[in-house]
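ARCHIVE CARD
CATEGORY: sequence design from structure
SOURCE FIELD: tokenized fold
FIELD CONTENT:
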């Protein structure tokens, strides 16, 4: 047998083994390289992969706009930017680090310390809600690991004038106070999601597709008239400062619809400045603070007397000698008014007169009417922290309490509740629930007293503004005004405080065809003037003088022409 076939076979065997060895070495080399990359260069490869990858980012959406009845914005969302960093990717020795610190209004050591302490984190905020211009300047520095996100910031154009109504949001755009809080679900925006391609520096280089659309919040239109809001705020603030009062509230309602046209409080704050959001300034006093309404309840007591059928407007009540004893307690008038008809009782604000009326009627007559006009019950506004006030149930034998309630003691109301109770007197006996959100159809009113009773009491209340009444400083030139003053002692831990008062005026104008119902409350005025007719009534006069003209309400009390011809 020849040796050539054997030699050829051996040669082919060695070549096969050589090829297999080479393939094995290549496989081992590739595997070794993969293990090396995975073990020693994982962070580098992960960073490179993330820098050139497809990402899902949020598409910002803006919160719903809050506007007044004429569309004037009260709360809007303005586009801003947030600057954030990935400390793990940042070079703390970068030449532009000092420039970025200056743009962020930070010192370079503080910025470096913040980044160093969070070196293991992949996300930290550097500065939130900055202007787009500032964000562009930071981005232009091209510092690796620094990124910009677009979002929205809440802005309140009317500032402190509407803040107690509107409230404010936090940095994340969530409502914290006022309507921003109570209507969070309505105003809330839902960010969308987009798939994008980012480059090595984290910049978006391509929008691939939209995964879910951004859903903007729903807009809200209020019943507030910003013109009247500014006017009321200016006058209330001036009065609180002049009398060095602790605070105050003013509420203005549309007499026919119950819509809240203005609601202001003092002290206030600027919601655009987080530093001013002090807890003691945040509450809407017109809805949360309660007080005893005092003599402003006397028209309701007189209305209850007329509804009882026992009295007529001309009925005379004997109030001499100026005081009355009720179960060992003395109830006094300012002086002895003698015989007064029902109009005179309101004109002179006689405690004795309304006490005799209340005690002569069915025990529940007065309290039932007060409940029917909304006292002791929260309104339907849905406002956070709104108080329902206190209207106690009185047993028949609680004679003293029935007497004091007739002139506004022993119960508590908010300024809005007091204004609501006067709606029935202004609207010929029909009370419409107050509203704050603009609606296509007005709320349906409920009749709580006969038309003639409401008109008779309203006519009686006009005498309060006369020269012989307690509220003559509430007069509005050119218009007939019906109203009632109130002055009550503040209540402290030990009972009534002798030298602290709440001054109130509640009024209706024009009296012939009511358009506005307004309540002014000034808390603890300091000085010689503290009566409602001295402190609160002038605020009513100045506010209504401007409001009636802004609303183009025709005057109903112009002087009659004398018929004389003026020679020129």
């Amino acid at each position: 047998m020849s040796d050539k076939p054997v030699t050829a076979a051996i040669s082919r065997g060695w070549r096969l083994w050589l090829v297999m060895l080479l393939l094995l070495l290549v496989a081992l080399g590739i595997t070794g390289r993969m293990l090396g990359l995975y073990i020693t260069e994982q962070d580098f490869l992960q960073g490179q992969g993330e820098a050139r990858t497809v990402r899902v980012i949020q598409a910002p959406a803006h919160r719903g706009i809050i506007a007044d009845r004429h569309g004037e914005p009260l709360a809007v969302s303005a586009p801003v930017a947030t600057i954030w960093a990935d400390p793990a990717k940042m070079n703390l020795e970068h030449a532009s680090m000092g420039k970025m610190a200056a743009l962020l209004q930070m010192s370079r050591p503080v910025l470096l310390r913040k980044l160093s302490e969070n070196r293991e984190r992949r996300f930290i905020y550097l500065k939130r809600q900055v202007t787009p211009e500032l964000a562009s300047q930071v981005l232009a520095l091209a510092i690796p690991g620094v990124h910009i996100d677009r979002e929205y910031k809440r802005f309140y154009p009317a500032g402190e004038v509407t803040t107690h109504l509107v409230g404010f949001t936090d940095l994340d755009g969530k409502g914290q106070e006022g309507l921003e809080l109570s209507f969070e679900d309505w105003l809330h925006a839902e960010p969308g999601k987009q798939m994008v391609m980012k480059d090595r520096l984290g910049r978006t280089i391509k929008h691939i597709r939209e995964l879910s659309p951004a859903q903007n919040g729903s807009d809200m239109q209020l019943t507030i008239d910003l013109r009247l809001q500014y006017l009321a705020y200016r006058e209330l603030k001036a009065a609180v400062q002049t009398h060095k009062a602790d605070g105050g509230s003013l509420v203005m309602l549309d007499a026919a619809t119950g819509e809240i046209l203005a609601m202001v409080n003092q002290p206030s704050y600027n919601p655009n400045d987080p530093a001013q959001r002090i807890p003691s300034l945040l509450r809407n006093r017109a809805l949360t603070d309660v007080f005893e309404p005092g003599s402003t309840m006397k028209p309701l007591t007189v209305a209850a007397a007329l509804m009882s059928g026992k009295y007529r407007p001309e009925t005379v009540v004997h109030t001499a000698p100026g005081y009355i004893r009720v179960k060992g307690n003395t109830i006094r008038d300012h002086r002895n008014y003698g015989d007064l008809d029902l109009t005179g009782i309101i004109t002179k604000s006689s405690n004795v007169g309304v006490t005799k009326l209340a005690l002569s009627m069915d025990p529940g007559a007065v309290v039932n009417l007060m409940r029917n006009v909304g006292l002791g019950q929260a309104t339907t506004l849905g406002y956070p922290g709104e108080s329902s006030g206190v209207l106690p149930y009185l047993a028949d034998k609680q004679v003293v309490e029935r007497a004091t309630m007739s002139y506004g003691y022993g119960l508590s109301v908010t300024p809005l509740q007091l204004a609501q109770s006067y709606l029935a007197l202004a609207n010929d006996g029909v009370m419409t629930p107050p509203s704050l959100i603009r609606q296509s159809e007005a709320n349906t009113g409920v009749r709580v007293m006969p038309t003639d009773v409401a008109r008779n009491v309203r006519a009686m209340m006009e005498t309060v503004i006369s020269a012989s009444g307690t509220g003559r400083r509430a007069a509005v030139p050119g218009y007939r005004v019906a109203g009632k003053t109130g002055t009550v002692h503040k209540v402290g831990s030990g009972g009534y405080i002798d030298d602290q008062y709440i001054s109130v005026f509640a009024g209706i104008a024009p009296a012939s065809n009511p358009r506005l119902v307004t309540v002014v409350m000034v808390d603890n005025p300091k000085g010689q003037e503290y009566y409602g007719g001295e402190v609160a009534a002038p605020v009513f006069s100045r506010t209504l003088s401007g409001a009636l003209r802004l609303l183009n309400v025709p005057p109903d009390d112009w002087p009659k022409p004398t018929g004389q011809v003026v020679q020129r």
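CARD ANNOTATION: Residues 432 and 444 are 6 Å apart (CA to CA). The chain is about 35% helix and 20% strand.
SHELF: design records, drawer C
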